[in-house]
Amino acid sequence: xTAYTEEYRGLVAQLSGGEVTEAFRREVAALVGEGGLISEPxxxxxYECDGLTGYRVTPALVVLPATTEEVAAVVRLCARDRIxxxxxxxxxxxxxxxxxxxxxxxIGLARMxxxxxxxxxxQRAVVQPGVTNAGISAAVARHDLYFAPDxxxxxxxxxxxxxxxxxxxxxxxxxxxTTNHVLALTFVTPDGDVVTLGGDAxxxxxxxxxxxxxxxxxxxxxxxxxxxxxxxxxxxxxTLVADFPHPEAAGNAVSDIVAAGIVPAAVEMLDELxxxxxxxxxxxxxxxxxxxxxxxxxxxxxxxxxxxxxxxxEICRRNGTTNLRVADDAQERARIWKGxxxxxxxxxxxxxxxxxxDGVIPRTKLGSxxxxxxxxxxxxxxxxxxxxxxxxxxxxxxVLYNGAVDGEAERAEHLATAIVELCVEQGGSITGEHGVxxxxxxSMTAMFGPDDLTVMARVRAAFDPQGICNPGKVLPTxxxxxxxxxxxxxxxxxxxxxxxxx
Amino acid sequence: xxxxxxxxxxxxxxxxLRLHVxxxxxxxxxxxxFDDHHPPSDELISDCVHCGFCLPTCPTYALWGEEMDSPRGxxxxxxxxxxxxxxxxxxxxxxxxxxxxxxxxxxxxxxGVQYDQLIEAVRPQLERNHRRGLLDRxxxxxxxxxxxxxxxxxxxAVLGELYRRLGLRSLAHRTGAVRLLPRRLQAVEALMPPxxxxxxxxxxxxxxxxxxTMRRRVGFLTGCVQRVFFADVNQATVRVLTAEGCEVVAPPxxxxxxxxxxxxxxxxxxxDRARALIxxxxxxxxxxxxxxxxxCGSTLKEYGRMLRDDAVYAExxxxxxxxxxxVSELLAELGPVAPRHPIEARVAYHDACxxxxxxxxxxxxxxxxxxxxxxQVTDIPEAEICCGSAGIYNLVNPxxxxxxxxxxxxxxxxxxxxxxxxxxxxxxxxxxxxxxxDLPMFHPVELLDASIRGVxxxxxxxxxxxxxxxxxxxxxxTF
Lengths: 502, 479
Fold this sequence. Notes:
Helix content of chain A: 25-40%
Oligomer: heterodimer
Largest sheet of chain A: 8 strands, antiparallel
Number of helices of chain A: 18
Strand order of the largest sheet of chain B: 1-3-2-4-5
Structural class of chain A: alpha+beta
Number of strands of chain B: 9
Distance between the termini of chain B: 53 Å
Strand content of chain B: 5-15%
Strand content of chain A: 15-25%
Radius of gyration of chain B: 23 Å
CATH class of the domain at 115-232 in chain A: Alpha Beta
CATH class of the largest domain in chain B: Alpha Beta
CATH architecture of the domain at 115-232 in chain A: 2-Layer Sandwich
Shape of chain A: globular
């Protein structure tokens, strides 16, 4: 059976785009000013990749608009000339979601970084997409409020990117993903209309288009304002690090904690290599040489947290913990998290290159999956470090390699793909929070059947019939995923005589 | 990386090109747009994994939100430069010139990328291989024939005082004539510190004995701008060091340490100055060499790297660097012996980039200030972002420097201090330029000196410095 329906092929077919001409450049400059435009070749090259450096495409133009109106006006020009565009925040994404399209433009939102309003009583804030995740919490800290989703790159990643990827983070085990903390979006459609999706109230009448856009990885339009939900800081937070003699024991401890009816704010696991890298980077006090460390955090009302914290320690001991480190104060807790959150970037300390993988497995299969990953790593002759959100089975294996060694990058890429396919085989998913982007589009068929993909392509086409909004991301392009070009099928717009094929 | 160069599309041409490049590489070149004298190293460049953790602490990214004016963007440009995929033209140079060299990214980087070494490798390459515009060259020439020379600075200080005292300054500001000057000269005019004429004649004695038992014999770098415009800081430093049991030796032959030159990529000049300073201190036997200017201190600590190719000086330079301490480092290490008197004030401590980021000296100045009874030391929000002073940056790049200066002042205002303390004269002048009112500003050793001598420095310098909210909208520079 083929992986794609004919309808799907038609919907994702690459259509002829317009060209970024000097006249187009001048029109954009008239909208955003020369200062909002980047067109020198050397400068454009710095936008050719995001946090995933394996894929690179130099855009024809980078535009840095300052307002929703400017974004909409630029998108209208793109729609008119059928020029593909890609939205970009801080460029920290790990799946190549902000990878530019050749001959297309990048719409960078780094200059739209104002906190527009804070409603303390209703615990809401309206922010522009370029505000960093941590920047939201910092802006409302004096009201004892914070924004709960906390991806590890929170000091730099932007809320616009969080919305695109429906980002999670260590604490989404208890608090949910970005979608659970976004009430409304100001949204520029791929034809340049400005609409509001969602509203101030948590539940809206009619289909929840806000939820459709959240996590669509920039393929449905551009978000230019976000109304976020803020939470009151918990009364107490307790954090511990427990060392285990092997990852299976740590995995069992996680299962036992959840089985005991405890909902921790976060449960993270680091293996030996990950600990080594973190310690080299930030000296967070993890035990070097420890095969698996669990970071467990509880928060909430003091009486409840104290009781459950004792229970967690007991469970760790029952599962053979070799060392229990309890954070005594906020500083110590911050150190523990600094180590954990620097983990990906810290890999640079122990390896010249690495792939960050992101997959999900059922929590009960943690132990066996880790054993299998270790076997695969041995077979490939490559080191794999593991850092993950153990509480919800979200794995982040880091495949370490040296790009200067011939063929090692390809071997690493294969291993990374094999690991994620292992996750699907175990009943899990190809991504927990990093998104599909460019990186995993071809793996979508491992998880979704032809009808699933067709429905996704229909949704995308309903928003973006011209296919100009971040094309090539999320949905696999059959030709680029190892398939020979098939027989010619007309795209619906092509049949209608609106467009022609390149 | 697999760059696709459209001009090299023909495989035949590509092979020829490859051979040519290989031949150059054998001759020690082949570094793309860079020459073969210490181009930015591939190993250091490849340490960057493009994670972006440096972006929020980079002052220029904070201002413009542009990738090529961020640390990882600049490293990307270096990589393209090494591959020869770009030209070393004005566009290329401007992004390195725009870098303040604050090294906040070095602090922020989880991968341990040594951006400091990378940018310091690129700047001399630009100086050698990129020709700046005539005005730019003239202006830089002016700066470097003035600032490293205390004798010329003294003349400039006298002229500046005349300009001020004869009412020319207020006339120029009242009539708006000052705005007719080019932006860079306006910056010079505005940043020019008032000089106390009696200080112009002051010299730090060659040797000042310790008070009581001698605990350490230290060499003291008197600085250039420091000794002319901030002679009182130098006096305070000597008083504090001697009170804490140090014999202070200040070789009268010492000249500019070369920090400004080094940070601007003027390598031969910087190295000459470094060698001369090593010689000046070679004549005195000291255990420690103390600097009270963050920018100078960080360069002294780099002498070992700077002179690594010098057969005669390499070893001496490394030994010299190993002895260098910021004054707060030394005081924290020695521990207090002189009794302190209380100073009841709330002081905001501003981390100078070349102390915090470049030297990693953050806790010691706070610790030292903490020995003063009654003194409340508070941190400033967004402390990691540069104030825009950055050596000669606020003179050659006045626009971004002004934005950063105002931004820093907003943050200092937010903690409503009675006074500000910082260990770099550049930061002090920069913050004062944009401060709406009259904030007493000190080098930390001045506060320590006052505490040891039992005077209240804050009220002595114009009382409580908290400006009213109205003052926040006042014209800058009207201090």
